[in-house]
Structure formats: C-alpha cells, structure tokens
Amino acid sequence: MKKTICIILIVAFVALFGTSAYFIYDHYRQEEQQAELYDSLADIVDSAAETEEEPTEPILYTEEKTVLPELAELYQQNSDLAGWIRIEDTNINYPVMHTPDNPDFYLKHGFDKEYSDYGCPYVQENCDVQLPSDNVVIYGHHMKNGSMFADLEKFKSQDFWQEHKTFFFSTVTDRYEYEIVSVFKTFVYSDSPESFKYYHFVNAEMPEDFSAFVDKCKELSLYDTGVSAEYGDKLIRSEVIFIRWRRI
Questions:
Q1: Is 90 inside any structural domain?
Q2: Would you place residue 31 in the very low, low, confident or very high pLDDT band (cuts 50, 70, 90)?
Q3: Mean of the pLDDT values across residues 194-208?
Q4: C-alpha angle 19/24/25, rounded to 5°?
Q5: 23 has a pLDDT exceeding 50
Q6: Neighbours of 97 (CB within 10 A)
Q7: pLDDT at res. 53
C-alpha cells in the first residue's frame, strides 16, 4: 500500500514539474518573441525616419491626409495602427493601436494580432487621435521585464522628469511632441473616495470641465512640474504611472 502511494506521489510530482517547466519555458519564449517583434518594428520606423524618403505612392488615410512615411510599412501590415509613442531613455518605443469596435483586443494581442500576455499599447475606444479628443487615453501593460509601459515608473523620480519633460507621439498622419503636465498615481477601478476615474474624461462639454480635470491631475501630482494646460490644449493619459501630457 505504501509503495503504491509513493508511486502515485512520484507520478504527481513529475507531472507537476513537467507542467511548471512548460509554463516557464513558454513565458521566456513569448518574452523573446515579443522583444524581437517590437525591436523589428522600431527598426522599420527608425530606418524610414532616417532616410526621410517619401514612399513612391503615398498611402491615403483620409481625403486630406496621407500616412507618415515612417509608419507606412507598419500601417500596411496592420491598419489598426493609430500611431507611435516614444520616450527617450526608456523602453517605450512602440506602435499604438485602436479598435473602437473591439475595445480591448490589444490587451492580450500583439501588433501581429497573435495572442500575447504582453499585448500592445492601445487607445481607449471612445477616444479619437485624429480629431483629437481633449483627452486621449492610452493603455499599456506594466511588465516585470521592463517592457511595455513599465518604464513610466521612472517618472516617479523628479530628477528623471527634469531630463525628460517632453516625449513624442505620432499619429498615423502627423508628428507631435507633448509636454508633461503631471505625474501621479491613483485608484481607478474602485468605489473608494480616493479613486480618480480619469478614463471617464474624454471631451470637455465646457471649459470649466477641462479646468476641473487638469486641477485634479495637478492635485494628485507627485511633484510640481510648473506646467499646466488650458481649454483647447490636447492631453494624453497613459497607464501605470499616470502622466498627464499636453501637445505643444
């Protein structure tokens, strides 16, 4: 009887070890695949930007606008592309997607539309990057290996912000630079009185609404940037550390 129990336990442990080993292997395999995917996309964008060559046949995005040359190849690969975000001295150098009819698709899918725990940065469904909305909300995972939006944590340091007061976000058709207005952390998915549901604010119905929103962001700031925003400015809000940006 004892021998039988021992055999059963050995088999169980072997099965458990095998399963654990598989998940560990799969995790690192996926990590490597995602790193290769986004590195290759960044190389395409950087190479096209450096050459500054216009495509032979510009790609029409609307009747008035064409796709930026550096994003043309990526847009042809995946028309869900909404733009590209880059922050110097961080790992943040990624495509940004938008699927209004399937809001959280890129929460668990990469740029190539394959399933991925890493996902791909994406815009909240009711935001418009082309108009743009008063507040464009961009979501991204905080990955333990430092990828995706994990490096937003660097902005906890006022010294880091001092050296990185602006960043770049290009839509599919236009290049923009944004100035950091506020860096803060907050509860978002709870009924706590301290919760600040930033994602509810997309467009201000009145100038007072815009001012109240910016004032709340400034109130929660980890430090004073000395920068504010006025009605008519356009903001971007990004996940993980809540950094309020305005276009300049």
A1: yes
A2: confident
A3: 87
A4: 95
A5: no
A6: 24
A7: 59
In a domain, 34, yes or no: no
d(CA 172, CA 69): 9
Tokens of 173: 């058709």
User: For residue 228, is pLDDT > 80?
Assistant: yes
Q: What CATH number corresponds to the domain at position 49?
A: 2.40.260.10
Dist. CA 248–CA 230, nearest whole Å: 12
Q: Is the pLDDT of residue 61 over 60?
A: yes
Range of the domain at 53: 40-247
pLDDT for 241 beyond 80? no
Which residues does 59 contact at the CB level (< 8 Å), separation at least 6?
A: 66, 67, 72, 75, 76
